[in-house]
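W.,

You were right to be curious about this one. When I first looked at the sequence I had no strong expectations either way, so I just let the prediction run and decided to look at it fresh. Below is the sequence, 1496 residues in total, followed by the output.
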Amino acid sequence: MDTEEKKKFKKKAPWDAFVSSEAEATSTSEKTSEQWKTAYKLLKLITILVCFSCLLGCVVVSKGALLFAVSQFSEADIKYCDTGRNQEQRQTVYMPLKAEVAWIWVVFFAYITPEVFTFIGSLRTMLMRSFEIPGILEFLTCLSFEFLHTVGVGILVFIALPAVDSIRGLLLMNAVCILPGILKLFPHQDLKLFGKAIPEIVCRVLTGLSLVMQITALIIWPVLHNDTIDDEWAIPVGLFLTSFGWWEPFVAEKPNFPSSKLWSVKIKMVDGGARAPTYAVIAPIKIGIMFGCMLLMTGYKEPALSDLFTYFDYSFSNSHFLLRDGLLVREIVLTRNLSIKDLKMFYSDYHPAFVLITQIMCSWGAYYFAKFACATGIQRVSYALPLTLATPISLLTLTLMCSDRQDDACAFDNLPKHLFFNCPADTKSMEWMKESGWVWVFWFISQVWLTIHIWFPKNGKLASEEQMFSTPNYNALLMEQSLMLNRRADDGKDSRRFDFKKKHFSTNRTEADVTPQDPRKKKKKKISLVSDQNHDFEEIESSHETTRIYGCATMWHESEEEMEEMLKSIFRIDDDYFNRNLAKNFLQIDDPDYYEWETHIFFDDCMERSSHCKDEFIVNQFVQLLLKTVKSCGEKWYGSRNPPATIEPAQVYITPYGGRLIWHLPGKTKIICHLKDKNKIRHKKRWSQCMYMYYFLGYQLMDNDKLSEQEKEVRAENTYLLALDGDVDFQPDAILKLVDLMKRNPEVGAACGRIHPIGSGYMQWYQMFEYAIGHWLQKATEHMMGCVLCSPGCFSLFRAKAVMDENVMHKYTTVAKQAKHYVQYDQGEDRWLCTLLLQRGWRVEYSAASDSFTACPEGFKEFYNQRRRWMPSTIANIADLLSDYRNVVKNNDDISYFYILYQIMMMIGTILGPGSIFLMLVGAFNVAFKISMFESLMYNFVIILVFILICCFFKADHQVFAAMVLSLVYAMIMMAVLVGLVLQVIEDGPLAPTTLSLAFVAGSFILAGILHPQELACLPMGVIYYITIPSMYLLLMVYSIFNLNNVSWGTREVPKSAADIEAEKEKNLQEATKNVKANKADGLLGFFASMNEKKKGTLEFSCGNICSWMWFTQKDQDDPKREIMMIADKLDKIEKALNLTEQPKPKVEENIVVNAEPVDSISKEVVKPRKPESRGVRFQARDEEHDPYWLEHNEENKKKVPLLLVNTPRPLEPQEKRFWVNFIEEYLKPLDENKEEKKRVQEELKDLKNQMVLSFLILNSIWVIAIFLFQQNKDMIFIKWPWGAKGPVLDWDRSHTSQFSSRVDSIQVEYEYLELEPIGVTFMVFFALVMLIQVIGMILHRILTLSHIVVTTKLWSRHNVTEYVNKHGIDIIKDIAMDKNEDYGAETMEEKIKRQLDRISENPETELRRMSRGTTLRRRGKSIKSDVFKEMGQRHNTFKRKETQRRRPGAAANNASSFRSPVTIQEEDEIGTDSIPVYRTMSKLDPNGLSERTVL
């Protein structure tokens, strides 16, 4: 017990009874999460309302625009509005042939627009992604359905709808569900309403009745109104053929059914990747079919075929109409008994074009909002409801408009006076409804039933378009029916197949996929029927699909505060897992976000030399700090609970790599800390990652004999590694958001969230803005355009299946041999891992909704050293990716040539960035100090040259100090430049290039901040970012390039302990002694040369190995040679004494156990036997495998690490121990120190540095000189800026008169235009283009983030009790756990919750009142009622019955999977049970509703 703990437990005197308390600091993630919970709920409500309104409005307007266009080429009697005449004098409008042409083309263009989108999207998929070529049967089947559908739509819109009025045409659109109704009769119908299942027989009867109702549309109107409807055949034919377009959602996998053959075709389209090549051909064919329908179905009547092309341009620009008083226009025209003087001609301006644009925009908007609503989990309110209401609202609106138009021809003056809908003559009296319109009610009801699946979505979060809709895009002419009938009724999940590209089982496994074939000969596989091998996965238990997450934190030299933040995050996960597990078991909740969790901490370089015994090692101060922090933080976190809980001292295991500590948390998860001794295993972060990858995925998964190959495959898909830093702060919800991305797309190999830097000081302020724009613009754009290039190691989720892929995990263990490998592999290991994933075809994504917080460098030196590592690694990995761009584009579906071009542009900007900043500084000096451009160039050149020379000849510390001083100077200059820019903007005007550039950049940042309201506070930090641009983009780049040969970590460095320093001195002394002896052997000259005292200077630099300079020299106190002369004689005397007197050697047992663990790359430690207590006594070397010094009960360990000695050390299982021994020997054996190899690497690193420095200086020098010379000669080579000219300046032309004459011949007006050099303009356009791409990418990514926030935010809405408990049961369990209304004594939290649920099941009303009096449920308001508690009680009784059955003799083995106690991740299939035999007896009545009771 240390001094602080003793003071804590010491009893105070009465006079010292005063105390000071300090509230526990709230984590940044917790504060941020609580602040935005309410805002997220409000945002979701607003989103629901907006989606509902926009979708409903877009569908209504789209349908109205179609009917409006069709009305213009129908035989309609349209009243004309003439405000100058009496409305009783009827005037009618006749649309001549020239005018009808435009409206026919409007309908055609409206239909083909989504088909064009489909064609472009299919081509994009074929060019950028892998795809499968469909078989002839599959292609012909899809083509046949689409052909019939297109012909039916053509008949419907060009013949059937023009033959009826607009209202009847609107009603007919609800009768296009005939084929879907037929197909729906065959598959099994599983439907629940209000939590109760509807019998299948009832569903089939209702489906049959709905089908009959749909068929009546083919008969009633054509038969009853054959005298008033022209071409009555068009209605039944058009409706029936149109229904062929929506067959896929209603086809199910059912053998021996007529639709079973269509299932194989559907699975190729939906899951097999054949959609793109199929519809790349079908979409143009559909356009051609519709074009043919337009020609054939309109040409045989009016207008003629030639008129469609002759009057195309004229009809859109100058279409006219004819007006006649009193007579029906169509009859007059047909009889041609109309004289010109009786007619009046009028013209309209592009009305058809306006209607077409409106229809296209509204149709696209409806489809977009429909996708958004389905993907974000608001389908019922914002998708199903508006689509269901679309037709009734359209009918009501159209009826009211027609009624008002009949009363007053000028009722809608915002519409053209001569254009309106084709209204029935008896609209106001509703005679049309009484005659035959009533049958529409049955059509509408049948359509609602046949599309009932849209009210019960099954797809997961953030589902893709292919997972939500069957055929791509939409039918713009039948918008409402297209969205309802095209919605998939299944969950959108793919079946499984073997993917040859990734050598894993993936989606849609087929016969052709499993047959051996050469992938080089046939890259795109032909699809046939689904193989029976797909059933191998159907027998896999659902437990293997459970999400398993390994939290893998790497620690080194973290402070206590940083450890506390990470431990709090782990405790939050422990609580979250505990609540989810209890809700899953006690309340029988099927939680889609359920996961199993295990925390692993990998502690690098955790041993330090003992201060008592210099040859032994103990755990270092940081491990000691972790032990104390776990204890203290656990007491604070769990001690305030009711009942309180504690964390027991860690269990200790001795391992081949050092040691292992295991803490069991109260929430049933574990913290496993792996103590890495660098003398036994390689240290540093990359090797820790290799360590846990092979341990979890190699040993626990692939080496598990109890799992089949299919089970291993499924587990690999659902197992994730969460890479963490030892100081990260996050919420459980942040992890779940990353898991959502993984579940949404099985091709995602890694995902990262938004990283927020925390700390204090100006460097943290700078990094706030830097991190912000890096995520806002760069990562968001990479996500949208292709893939994120780097998933930061401080908080990233990796899919096990991706990491296990070829050339990923195994290649990640490669030891750096070349100089560039040291830069690429070890300086930025997270970026290299992502590069390997991208090269293998995996996708890396970014979620802005997943927030984490990590400590950032607060000092200038630490920041520079960190970026000194990051910058070269970033350039090296991107260069590696770009150099292999052909294979990357070929293997990775998400990386295109356009994305590669974008990264090349970014790389060019990075390399030439310092030169551009230098030119900016030249201009800044010119503006700020009013000096010439040449003088400004020279001043900056001298400054940069001095810094370059410092980087060449001085130490890194001196370089950083010089950079800090220059940063301060440049910061003051940048403030002066800011004032100069403002003055220049005022002088040049708002249209000058400087003004526009400044407005564009600042506006982009401000827009990004507004779109990220959570991070709006980062915007003011942009001032610090601005004034440090020269430091961060010029000086830092120079510092990084000139220190490329420095591959040390550079951050979190701590001084060595006194024992280590002493041991290092002793080692150096021994080496120096050997050198002295060697020099003696070389002669007198060599001996005296070695005796020169080593000196060091305060300032020193060298010119290679030629010469060196030192100023202010002084003796090196650490030079061991100074002591050699003093002990040389003593060594000789001792040697002579040993030779004269032969001492008896101590006898050593033959079975001495020597520590044979590998040694570190820096120092090779030799394990020495203990010093014998007396001469002649035998001794034995320490057995590190069973009795390591760091676990010995000695005074040093008792004083420093008493918590480590509480439990008895345990050995590992033999199988696991063998794994670690073999694994370390194969991959992680400490690298032996080889001075020659080390010297070679150092020389290669210097050569690499020299090459990079030379290339860097040459490229930037050429760039600077070229731009500067163009600026100096822009009066000869320039581009005149056309806007913002200065003037006018008046000048009198006196060339033909005397200069003293008072009369002039002419006056000259002069304007002064700004002149830009061509290269500068090119760079400005280049920069603006990159910025524009990033802004667009950011906006699109914000929409995805909005979707993610909406889908994960829960509203306390009430649909039914069952659904309410399923949705909010976990939150209710949390509320019960927080209940502090009574003392629960020594119960555990699990026992408390179980007892509370027992009370709820017995008396829900009483428990609801009791808990509502406290603070537990008060924040829920009135949302929880007694029926919710009753439902919870019933579910808990169900759990108890299952638990009772599980405890029956012999039932444990059969029901092992029915209930799993809250334990950690288990890779073994067997779950041990501690059940005891019991006897049972029957009872007539049980108070808990049980049919049988358990008695002892």
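Here's what jumped out at me. The CA atoms of residues 133 and 526 lie 5 Å apart. And, maybe more interesting for your project: The first helix runs from residue 3 to 9.

Coffee later to discuss?

I.
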